[in-house]
Structures are given as C-alpha cells and as structure tokens.
Design a protein that fits this description.
- By secondary structure, the protein is an alpha+beta fold.
- The protein contains eight helices and eleven strands.
- The strands form two sheets. Strands 1, 4, 5, 6, 7, 8, 9, 10 and 11 form a nine-stranded mixed sheet that branches. A two-stranded antiparallel ribbon has the order 2-3.
- The protein starts with a helix and ends with a strand.
Length: 368
C-alpha cells in the first residue's frame, strides 16, 4: 500500500512539472426558480499551428522519485510448485462427497428443465382429494320382524339359485361325467375267450374233431373220428386219427404207465413217435387177411419215446438193449387197458413197434 501511494504522488509531481493544466471555471448555479444568465460567447482565436506528431516529440524523462518508487514496488510472487509426491503404493483416496440435494418440500414445484417452459400451477381444488362421505347407517328394522323373516323376504330371492328340476323317468340316465371318464381311463375288458371244445369230452386230449370218414371198402371208416396232437400232456410227433374210445384209453396208458416209467429213468416223457393210426388195410398188410383194427380207427402203433433230457428210446433197439426194462414195463402194463397188446416177441411184423387196440375178445385182453 505504501509503495502504491508513493508512486501516485510521484506521478502527480511529475505531471505538475511538465505543464500546468488549464481548468475552466464552472458557471455559477442559479438559485431555484431563476433562469441561468446568458454566457457571453468567447472571442475567436486564431488557429494554433498543428502540433508535431507524438512520435516526433521527445519523451520527457521520468523523475528519479518515480524510478525509485517503481523499483521499490514488489513484483507479484509466482506460486510455488507443490513438492513431488513420494513414490510408493498408492493410498486409496476416497472420492469427494457430493453435496446432498436439498430436500424438496411437497408443496414446492419441480424446477423446470433447460429449454422447457415451467408447468402451469395446479389448482387449489386438485391439491387435496375430496373427503369421502360416511356410509349411511342401515335402515332400522321394524319392530316385530326377525332375521328369519328378512331372509324369507322377496328381496333376497335373486341371491339364491332355484333347485334343479327332477329329470323325467323316461329320460333318467347316468351323468355323462363318469361315463366319459370311464371311456377315457378304463381299459376295455378283453373279450371272453370261448373255451376250446373238448375232444370226446376228455380234457386230457388235444386236437380236433373231424368229419366222418367213409370208405368204399366194406368195414373201413370211422363214424366220429378225432385227430390227436397231444395226449395227457405228451406231444405226438405226427397227428393220430382214431375214435374216442381209442383216444381215452391212450390217455389212460400215458398218464398211468408211460409217464411214471419215464420218471423212473430220472426224466420226463415229452414226445411219442407214432408209426401208424387209421389205415384201411388187412392185418399185417397181408392180402386176403381179415381187416385190421386200424381200418376202423381203433388201433395205434408206437415206435419210440423221447425224454426231456434228450434221450430217444426205440422199440427196435431198446427191446434187447439197455432200455429193455423200461419198454417191458410199458408193454406189460398196457395189457388190460387195451384189448390187444403186441410187441417185438409176438411176430416179425411187430419187431420195431408196439401195437395197441381196443378190440374186444371173448377171453379178455390179448397180450403177446
């Protein structure tokens, strides 16, 4: 402050030395209500010669006092550079906290965005919703009326549905709901299988009943023939044709004799090889001989037996071999079930099979 004051005083002194400043006196101010006196016009003065150009005029030297004041004026100090930050791991500097926006009062209007006109003020009527009117109290119930009478009033009738009318008897049927559910989810019951017709009314026989067999040769033929495929659970290697009496006797023999004999060998009888059944021919195929029981469907010839363990026992090889006891038991116990039983020891025509028939003899069964 002192240096600036000294500089101003030095400039004022220098200006006074350079030349006096002509200052014209101000005209006197008239008192209020009076007009100002006319100022006499100044006499015309001859034009002064043109002043030399400023560039041609020598500059007046500054006085010594001004120079000393300028030298004493301190120059503005330059801001000192901040010291370098020490090297090392940077410390986490928290970001500057943002000033919290001033809480807006519920009545204050929102500030308009730049470039948008402020919204018009809300009317005072819309500031607060109108108060709801209190519900009117229910009308007083007249004296002498009970709640039951109110429920029975006609006004409550629309609130309850009328009961359904009963269906007429001629239209009575089940509801479609269970019927549809049963049709969708219930499996159709399998059709009942018709029981297979029994052959000769004997459940041990498997096969079929065939039509009557007639022949041009007198004495040949079967009135009620059957074709057998299995007897008493034992399969026949080829169908055997005969009458019902032969079929039932064969089932008795297999069930009571042949299967128990096979179990004595440590196995089960599964199949029988049939050598012959119905055939319209004479005995032992000899011309001129009497008709055989095969011609009437009353005889069957058996050549071999198959067991469950794979063994095959033939009459031709086993009768005089290791299976003689088994075959002899079958031959011996067949006598009495059949009317005629012939084996390898009867004649040369039966050396390879057993002959069983249901012929009737005066002296009983014929077995050889």
């Amino acid at each position: 402050m002192t240096a600036r004051l000294a500089l101003a005083l030095a400039l004022a002194a220098w200006a006074g030395e350079a030349g006096a400043i002509d200052v014209a006196p101000l005209p006197p101010v008239p008192p209020p209500g009076e007009s100002a006196p006319a100022t006499p016009a100044a006499p015309a003065t001859p034009a002064a010669p043109a002043a030399p150009a400023a560039s041609a005029m020598p500059a007046a030297p500054l006085p010594e006092a001004i120079t000393r004041a300028l030298d004493a004026t301190p120059s503005p100090a330059e801001p000192a550079a901040p010291p370098p930050a020490p090297r090392g791991p940077r410390a986490a500097t928290p970001p500057p906290a943002r000033p919290a926006p001033p809480a807006a009062s519920p009545d204050a209007a929102p500030a308009p965005r730049p470039g948008h006109a402020p919204p018009p003020p809300r009317p005072l009527e819309a500031a607060e919703p109108p108060a709801r009117a209190a519900p009117a109290p229910p009308p007083a119930r007249p004296a002498g009326r009970s709640p039951a009478s109110d429920r029975a009033a006609p006004a409550a009738a629309p609130l309850t549905a009328p009961p359904p009318r009963p269906r007429p008897r001629h239209m009575a049927r089940l509801s479609p709901g269970p019927v549809i559910a049963a049709a969708v989810f219930a499996r159709p019951a399998p059709a009942p299988r018709e029981p297979a017709p029994r052959i000769c009314d004997d459940p041990r026989l498997a096969g079929q009943t065939i039509t009557r067999i007639a022949s041009a040769t007198p004495g040949c033929g079967i009135e009620r023939p059957v074709r057998l495929s299995a007897v008493a659970g034992v399969r026949l290697d080829r169908p055997a044709i005969g009458d019902c009496r032969l079929a039932s006797r064969l089932a008795d023999w297999i069930e009571k004799v042949a299967r128990p004999a096979a179990r004595g060998l440590g196995s089960e009888l599964v199949s029988i090889e049939v050598a012959a059944s119905y055939a319209c021919r004479p005995r032992n195929n000899r011309p001129g001989a009497r008709l055989s029981e095969h011609a009437r469907g009353r005889a069957i010839d058996i050549a071999a037996f198959r067991l469950a363990d794979g063994r095959r026992i033939t009459v031709l090889d086993g009768w005089r071999g290791k299976a003689r006891a088994f075959l002899a038991r079958l031959h011996r116990r067949a006598c009495g079930i059949f009317g005629t039983v012939l084996g390898p020891d009867s004649d040369r025509w039966h050396r390879n099979h057993f002959h069983f028939d249901v012929a009737r003899h005066r002296m009983g069964s014929y077995c050889r």
